[in-house]
Design goal:
globular, alpha+beta, DNA-binding, 6 helices, six-stranded mixed beta sheet, Deoxyribonuclease I, Chain A
DNA sequence: ATGACAATCAGAGATTGA
C-alpha cells in the first residue's frame, strides 16, 4: 500500500498538477495540506471519480487539510485536540480498514515565523498538543502514522544552506527539540529509515531561484509508530514534481507499507 | 535589513507562507 503526503498550496490552483501526479503515482491514500479552501468548495467529485473517498477539514483562504483514500475511512476526527479555541484547520485523522486497522493522521504544523512573537508561541503550543496526541497513539499500541508538512528541518543535513535557517522557526533548537521529543516516544522518521545523507528536500521557495539552485529543505515527514514501522518497505520524495508547470512549493513524499 | 514569488480574497493591495 502506498500512502503519500503533499502540501499542494491551494487546491484551486493545484488541481491540474495534483491530478497529473495522482495518475502517475497511483497512491492508495493521499494526505493533503494547505488546501486553502472551505469544505464546500473542495472539488471532491473529481477525486471520487478516480476512486477516492474524500474527507476534508477546510478553512477559508488559509490552512486546510484533507484525506483521499481508496479504502473506506472510519473514525474521522477534525482538529488537533487540546485547545477548543484553536480555529485553524491543521489536523484531520481517520482509520483505514484493511485486514487490520491503521490510524492515519494528516497534519499541517504552524510555520512559526516571525520569531519571537505570537506565531512562534502558537507553533510551540501546537507542538505540545501534538506530543500529547502522539503519546496517545503510541499508548494505543495500534499501527499509526502522522504525516504532513511539519515545518521542521530535523537536522543540518536536511537543508542545502543550514546557515540561512539558524534563526528561523523551522530550525530553531526549541522547535526541533519538540519534534525530537515526539520521535523519542518511538516514532520513526520513515524517510531517514530508508535514505541516508544530505541533498534530500521536500520544499523549495518560489523566490530567488531556489529550485534551480537546489536550495531546498526537508520539512514534510512521515512518522510511524513502532508496529507501523514494521510494515515499512520504502519511502521516497517525488522531487521532480517541483520542476513542472505551476508547481506547489512542496513536493509529494510517500511510503510503502507491506499490507 | 529587505526583497525576491505565489495564492487568496476581492476586485487594490494586504496577508500569509517558509
Amino acid at each position: 500500500m502506498k500512502i503519500a503526503s503533499f502540501n499542494i498550496n491551494g487546491i484551486k490552483a493545484r488541481t491540474p498538477a495534483l491530478l497529473e501526479w495522482l495518475k502517475e503515482a497511483k497512491p492508495d491514500v493521499v494526505l493533503l495540506q494547505e488546501i486553502k479552501s472551505v469544505d464546500e468548495a473542495f472539488p471532491r467529485e473529481i477525486f471520487e471519480e478516480l476512486g477516492y473517498n474524500v474527507e476534508t477539514h477546510g478553512q477559508k483562504s488559509f490552512n486546510g487539510v484533507a484525506i483521499l483514500s481508496k479504502y473506506p475511512l472510519r473514525e474521522i476526527e477534525r482538529g488537533l485536540p487540546g485547545d477548543k479555541s484553536d480555529e485553524q484547520a491543521r489536523w484531520i485523522e481517520a482509520t483505514i480498514c484493511l485486514p487490520h486497522e491503521i490510524k492515519i493522521c494528516c497534519l499541517y504544523l504552524p510555520n512559526g515565523n516571525p520569531l519571537p512573537g505570537p506565531k512562534y508561541d502558537y507553533k510551540l503550543e501546537w507542538m505540545d498538543r501534538l506530543y500529547h496526541r502522539a503519546k496517545e497513539l503510541i499508548s494505543s499500541e495500534k499501527p499509526s502514522l502522522m504525516a504532513g508538512d511539519f515545518n521542521i528541518i530535523p537536522q543540518a543535513e536536511d537543508a542545502a544552506s543550514p546557515k540561512n535557517w539558524v534563526n528561523d522557526a523551522l530550525f530553531k533548537l526549541e522547535s526541533r527539540s519538540k519534534f525530537r521529543k515526539i520521535l523519542n516516544l518511538g516514532f520513526l522518521d520513515a524517510f531517514r529509515a530508508c535514505n541516508d545523507g544530505p541533498g534530500h528536500y521536500s520544499f523549495w521557495d518560489y523566490q530567488a531561484g531556489a529550485w534551480n539552485k537546489n536550495d531546498g529543505i526537508r520539512i514534510d515527514h512521515f512518522l510511524l509508530s513502532p508496529n507501523c514501522s514494521d510494515l515499512l518497505t520504502d519511502c521516497k520524495i517525488d522531487s521532480d514534481i517541483r520542476g513542472r508547470e505551476k508547481p506547489s512549493d512542496h513536493v509529494p513524499i510517500w511510503i510503502k507499507l507491506n499490507v
